[in-house]
Write a structure and sequence with these properties.
The complex is a heterodimer. Chain A contains nine helices and no strands. In chain A, helix 2 packs antiparallel against helix 3, helix 2 packs antiparallel against helix 5 and helix 7 packs antiparallel against helix 8. Chain A is mainly α. Chain B is largely without helices or strands. Chain B contains no helices and no strands. The chains are: A mainly alpha, B little secondary structure. At the A-B interface, helix 1 and helix 3 of A face loops of B. Chain A: GO terms for molecular function: ER retention sequence binding. Chain A: Pfam families: ER_lumen_recept. Chain A: This is ER lumen protein-retaining receptor. Chain A: Keywords: Endoplasmic reticulum, ER-Golgi transport, Membrane, Protein transport, Receptor, Signal, Transmembrane, Transmembrane helix, Transport.
């Protein structure tokens, strides 16, 4: 495993730790999109169906279990925890899941490397992950106050795929891996979707101002 | 088989 891949996994893990900290310690999920969190559960469940069938490494299996467990528990807190659920911005988190799930599923049926259940689900998870942040970004745009934790959470989540892009470049040139258009292009799209957010995040950080996205 | 790149990423 190269340093970019590790950095990607660690920023991803850190983003989840940050969100869980906000939920568990602050008892708040204000500014967090339940829609996006539910999409991540679908992403992990469909991508990690191979967990029981194929063993890559201890690291790999543990991380998969952590991503599955934490994403499900985040959704549980936001939906059912009696204090946390009251902080959820239900009225502004109105993005419809189906508008993302359905096109991604159809695309996965049409464009995949092999028409098998595992392969189609894996491809679907990559397409869905690329766009899963959209409800969260819409929610941020509608929020007047974006707290630091939420801003940092979204930033780390975006940085994770950017590191993966570097990892793929490294693997292709240094480790002579194959061309993998499906993860590469969806990863590129995923990172590009954050471009606007990155711009305002870095700007607010440089000017020591509170993060605010223009409507 | 070499058609599949192993899915060893997360």
């Amino acid at each position: 495993m190269n340093a970019f891949r590790l950095a990607g996994d660690m920023t991803h893990l850190l983003s989840i730790i940050l969100l869980l900290h906000k939920i568990r310690a602050m008892k708040s999920c204000a500014g967090i999109s339940l829609r996006t969190q539910e999409l991540y559960v679908i992403v992990f469940v469909t991508r990690y169906v191979d967990l029981s069938m194929k063993y890559y490494s201890f690291y790999n299996s543990i991380m998969k279990i952590v991503f599955l467990g934490t994403s499900i528990s985040i959704v549980w807190y936001m939906r059912y925890h009696k204090v946390v659920k009251q902080t959820y911005n239900k009225d502004v988190d109105t993005f419809r899941h189906i508008f993302l799930i359905l096109p991604c599923f159809v695309l996965a049926l049409l464009i995949n490397r092999a028409f098998t259940v595992i392969e189609v689900l894996w491809t679907f998870s990559l397409y869905l992950e690329a766009v899963a942040i959209l409800p969260q970004l819409v929610l941020l745009q509608r929020s007047r106050n974006i707290d630091n934790l939420t801003g940092n959470y979204v930033f780390l989540l975006g940085a994770y795929r950017a590191f993966y892009l570097l990892n793929w470049i490294y693997r292709f040139f240094i480790e002579n891996h194959q061309v993998r258009w499906i993860p590469w292009l969806s990863g590129l799209l995923q990172t590009a979707i954050y471009a606007d957010f990155f711009y305002y995040y870095i700007k607010s950080w440089k000017n020591r101002e509170k993060l605010k996205l223009p409507a | 088989e070499c058609f599949y790149e192993p899915k060893d990423e997360l």
